[in-house]
Amino acid sequence: MITYSQGCYLGVLGGMGPMAGAAFALRLAALTPADVDQQHIPTLLRNDPRIPDRSSAYMAGGENPLPYMVEGVRFLEQAGAQLIAIPCNTAHLWFDQIAASTRLPVLHIIQAVIEDLRRLGLPKGRIGLMGTAATLKLGLYQRHLEAQGYECIVPDDDEVERYCMGSIRAVKGNQLEDAFAPAAECIARLKARGADAVVLGCTELPLAVPHALRPSLGVTLTDSIDALARAAIAHYLEEQAQEQVAA
Amino acid sequence: MITYSQGCYLGVLGGMGPMAGAAFALRLAALTPADVDQQHIPTLLRNDPRIPDRSSAYMAGGENPLPYMVEGVRFLEQAGAQLIAIPCNTAHLWFDQIAASTRLPVLHIIQAVIEDLRRLGLPKGRIGLMGTAATLKLGLYQRHLEAQGYECIVPDDDEVERYCMGSIRAVKGNQLEDAFAPAAECIARLKARGADAVVLGCTELPLAVPHALRPSLGVTLTDSIDALARAAIAHYLEEQAQEQVAA
C-alpha cells in the first residue's frame, strides 16, 4: 500500500501513441495495491501525440523526435515529477540522450520487460520478439536480452511488416478490431519456432491483444505496458520502504 | 479529423478516481477520429488521487476537496490547457466554484450526458439514474435533466448504498470482478421501473460495466466517461471548423 503526503508525481511522457499512454495510466492504477483513491500513485500524463513518429525518424529519415521528447521530460520535471516513465519502446532508441537531459531517474522499458520475464519464472530462455521495425532492426531488445543470458527469436522482415506493423498501425488508426489477428499470427509463429515467451515490445501491441484473449494463445506473454507499470509501482514501494526505515 | 500546430492541451483534472481519469484519456483516444498519432488531441492528465473524497465531504463532513480542485485547474491552466474536463460526476457539485476559478472553458459532465442522450435518440423520456449517494441525494442529475424535459427514476437509499456504492467501492478498491453484479442489478431494477435509458452517472460505473457486456443488459446506457470524451472531441472539432472559416 502506498501513501503520500507531498508532491511526488510519476511523470509519464505519453502520446507515443496516445492510446498507449492512456493505457499505461490505466494499468498503473489497476496494478497498484490500493483500497481507496488516495493510495494510488499521483501521476502526470503528458499525452502529446505531436511528437514526430519514432519509427519514421529511424527508418525513413523523418523529423527527429528527440528535441520534443527532451522538452516533454523537462516539462514533467518542472511540473513536479520525481520519476519518468516513457510508454513507447521505440522511443527507447534515444534513451541515453533522454536520461542525460534530466536529473530525474528514468525507467527503462526494456529492463522492465526483463524483470517481468524473471517474475514470470523465466530467468533465461528463448524469447520471441515483437515490436516496430525500428525497434527490432536496431536490436533494442536483442542487445539487452542477450547481455542478460537470453536467446532471441526475431520475426523476418516480411513478418515484421505484415504482422507487427500491421497490428501496430491498426491500433494507431483506432481499428482495434483489425489489430488482433496479425498479432496473434506472429505470436503463433514465434511459439512454433520454440519461444518460451513472447514480448509485446511495442506499447500498441498490448492493446491489440486484450488480456482476456491471452490465455487462448498458449504461450507466456510479457506486456511492455504492464511491465513498465510494475516497475513504476516497485520504485514507489521501495522508496516508501526506505522512508520508513529512515523515520 | 483533428490536426494541431501549437500548444492547445485538453487539461484533465483526474484522480477522482485514478482509474476513471485514465479511462477518460483512453476513451478520448478511442473515440477521436484519427488515422495516426499526430491527429489525436494533446492531453495533459493530472491524475492526482490525493484530492479528498468528494462524497465524504458532502455526506460526512470530510475535508473540503474544492481548494485541491481549484489548485489542480490552475496547474493545468498554467501548463497550457485551453479546455478543462473533470471526469468525476460528484466533483460537479462544486462546478460553479471551479468554473469561476479559471479563465478557461470547463466542460460540464451532466450536460455532456444530456447531449449523449439526444445523440442516442432520446430528446425526452424517463431516465434511470446511478451515481454516488452524494450526486443522487443532492439532485445533480435531476436538476439538469428535469430542466431539459426529462423525468428521473432514482434508486432508493438502500439500493444506492447496496448497488451503486457497492459497485463504485469495488472499482476504487481495484476489485473490478466484484463491481459488475451490483451495477447490473441496479440497471435491471431501473429498467423494470420503466427507464428508457440508464445513466452511469459516476465515472467508476463505466469501469464496472464493460462495453462488451452492455448489449446483454437490454436497456440504453449512457456512460459519463464516454459522454465527456465526446464533448471534448466536439469542442476541438468545432474550434477547428471555426479556424478554417477564419483562415
TrEMBL record, chains A, B:
Its EC number is 5.1.1.13. It is an enzyme of class 5 (isomerase). It comes from the Bacteria. Keywords: Isomerase. It holds the Pfam family Asp_Glu_race. InterPro entries: Asp/Glu/hydantoin_racemase, Asp/Glu_race, Asp_race. GO terms for molecular function: aspartate racemase activity. This is Aspartate racemase. Belongs to the aspartate/glutamate racemases family.
